[in-house]
Amino acid sequence: MDFSPIGTFYGDAVYKYDAPRQGRLFAGHPGRIELKPGQNFEMALRDLEGFERIWVIFQFHENEGWRPTTRPPVPPKGKDRVGTFASRSPYRPNPIGLSCVRLLKIDGLTLYVDEADLLNGTPVLDIKPYIPMADAFPDAKAGWVEEQEGEPWTVESSETFVAQNRWIAEHSDFDLESFAQVQLSRGNFSKDVFDSSRRRLTIDEIAKTGVLAYRTFRIHFCYDEAANKVVLQQISSGYTVEELKSSDHDRYGDMQLHREFFARFNT
Question: Where are the domains of the chain?
């Protein structure tokens, strides 16, 4: 079988850890699908704008190979791994993904969507309308998912964190608050909230604090296990003062951003 993408998804999630594991749990992850011109797709999009949600069939273009079992973000009781066909794991024999996203509007060959869990540059293979009457089965059994342990954690932000994150968002394409919500709230429960094998994370269990790395920035937070709550306290640069004095090792091309951030917030 030979498939040709009909278009490409563009959004803020560049790395796998940027994207939410289930898009509909995280409003505020928008993007756009740009369809290829010259294919008569304008006609194919006719009548789609009346649907609130669409199915997006896409390729997991960043993956290599597949795995017969996977470790889910929230495992069921007594299990560490489940079969790939019983999961939403992206590492599949055929790297095909399926997401139900919210359709905001259509402008020509561009579809603006929200609640997306796709990475920037994802090849889109097909688009279908979501029809609640045919696609929704709210009473259907959900297998091992019904046996997941733990409760959701809430993620709040301090005034300092909000101000720092706003500044970074105004001077770059980064949104550290959105990233922290993805990593530390729904989709990661109980002990898995602080499972350092899934992301660059350090925890001080005595002080009840932690540091979550986002690219070359560091998100500092405290947590309350009894309340299942995380408070994002502040953001710091991952570079040292000495490193910021030189551009010899600016491999990510972002040291000037960090210099300005450090001058603004002195951290």
Answer: 7-147, 154-265
The 3-class SS string of 124-184 reads: EEEEEECCHHHHCCCCCCCHHHHHECCCCCEEEECHHHHHHHHHHHHHCCCCHHHHHHHHH
Instruction: Give the mean model confidence (pLDDT) for residues 6-30.
Output: 71
Q: Please say whether the dihedral angle defined by the alpha carbons of residues 182, 183, 184 and 186, taken in this order, is positive or negative.
A: positive
For residues 17 and 200, what is the distance between their CA atoms, to the nearest angstrom?
Answer: 10
154-265 carries CATH number 3.30.2310.20: yes
Q: Catalogue the long-range contacts made by 206-209 (C-beta closer than 8 Å, 24 or more residues apart).
A: none
pLDDT tens profile 120-134: 999 999 999 999 999
CATH number 3.30.465.10 is the correct assignment for the domain at 7-147: no
How far apart are the C-alpha atoms of 225 and 92, rounded to whole Å?
A: 35
Cross-strand partners of 33? 9, 111
User: What stretch of H or E contains 8?
Assistant: strand 7-11
pLDDT of res. 184: 82
How many whole angstroms separate alpha carbon 74 and alpha carbon 187? 7
| pLDDT tens-digit map of 185-201 | 754 434 555 655 555 88
Rounded CA separation 184/214 (Å): 13
Cα separation, 164 vs 259, in Å, equals: 14
Q: Using the structure block, give the residue that is written with the tokens 């069921």.
A: 76
Q: Are 49 and 112 in contact (CB under 8 A)?
A: no
